[in-house]
Amino acid sequence: MKMNNKLMFTKISLCIIVGGTFMSCASIRDHFVRNMLNDWEERDNKILSEQILPENIIEILDIPYIADGHRGHLLDIYYPDNIKGPFPAIIDLHGGGFFYTYKEFNKLYDFHLAKNGFIVFNVNYRLAFNDVKVPGQIQDIISALNWIDSNLDSYPVNKNRIYLIGESAGAYLATMAILISENERLQNVFNIGKSNLKINAMAIISGFMEWTRSELKYWGMRSMILEKGYKKQEYYQNLILDNIHEINSLPPLFVTTNGDDELEFMTLYFVKILEKNNMEHKFYYLEKNKPKKLGHMFNILHPEWEESIKLNNAMLEYLLNY
Predict the structure, then answer these.
(1) Is 41 inside a domain boundary?
(2) What is the value of pTM for the model shown?
(3) 19: number of CA atoms within 13 Å, CB side?
(4) Pick from 43, 64, 222, 284: CA 20 to 30 A from residue 16's CA?
């Protein structure tokens, strides 16, 4: 999947620059991306169908947090049926470059979290391709947090221990949802409401945290997931985490990447911001692994690996301190 991502971003970017004679640049891009996403979903559905999920987990599927019939506005809930609750809660936001995949991709990982004694809310959001752009995705996350807040009494949740985690793009969306919820200035800049749900701590897993990379593939990606003329929009400067002086309003953070992660530099960028602002966090870093290349979000894709078990246990131990 990693090589496909790189190839796709490069082709999209070249398409944007070159354009076409018979189709607009956007049409060429959208046609290419739509076919690519269909291929990826077909491949990933086969992978998902072959996964073996842990037993003794209760699952409640496809709950609408916005009742509009949109797939991007659904969430799942998982919790153990052989342990008495209430359980500490994890709200999980999947990755996918802002424009691909759904909550089902994280189901195996979230079942493993539930097996460890958590109730997990596995959240969809609309994808930044045809449906919405990144600010709308942040609004989706805040809407999901508000739904969870309003429905805590319906599920075996320990209300004093609620955690928010995200992977890749989901890690960034989680970060912005909390920053906006905690700061009126950002609510006004983005024209987005807030969530009052108390998040005790967060986990950032291989986060897509940097918006100013000049490489062609990242420029092309921004042109797809943000609206035309985005650099002139006030909110764009406030997507750049280093520009947000309210960054200290984030709760304690567990942050992780590894030397085989192609987005390692984005996590290192975020960690520098945390260190510069003297923010409470733990950075869990794994060096390059020669016998077994770990890669982007490896603990989500392969929760059964020994490295994943150690990482996930360290994350859960950190979260439960708050």
Answers:
(1) no
(2) 0.90
(3) 3
(4) 43
